[in-house]
Amino acid sequence: MSVLPYLVAAWIFLVGCYGLATSRNLLHAVGCLAVCQSSTYVLLLAVGYRDDGTAPVFSDLAPGSRPVVDPVVQALALTDVVVGATLTALLLALVIQVSKRHGTVDPDELSELRG
């Protein structure tokens, strides 16, 4: 088993976190959060991958003849995509409302939101 997919997932996550920490624009921050979340897709693919694995349809396989992939990981990846799209849409709607009410998307210029 290779560690390369895990390293790629960690690298994508760190790139997204770096962009989030250095962003001076709310739209850029939402994009960086989406990049951070896309690293979980790679991680789930790495966890669920099996060499020479086949679909988990057991009617055509003798038990123990070939390895099968885990269908739970596939369901988690699909759920992750849906949650990521929903979260991105919600955050973009909030950025639009901030832009309409305050006239800027720079977090440093939003002085009304400071405590």
List the helices and strands and how they pair.
Elements: H1 4-22, H2 26-48, H3 71-102
Helix pairs in contact: 1-2, 2-3
Q: What oligomeric assembly is this protein in?
A: single chain
Shape: elongated
Rg over alpha carbons: 20 Å
Strand count, sense and barrel status of the largest sheet are:
none
In total, how many beta strands?
0
Structural category = mainly alpha
What is the residue-mean pLDDT, rounded to a whole number? Answer: 88
Q: Number of helix segments?
A: 3
Share of helical residues = 55-70%
Poorly predicted runs of 5 or more residues: none
Order of helices and strands: HHH
Beta percentage is under 5%
How far the N terminus sits from the C terminus, by CA atoms, comes to 50 Å
Please, could you describe this protein's structure?
The protein is mainly alpha-helical. The chain has three helices and no strands. The longest helix has 32 residues, at 71-102. The protein is elongated and about 65 Å long. The termini are far apart. 5% of the residues are buried.
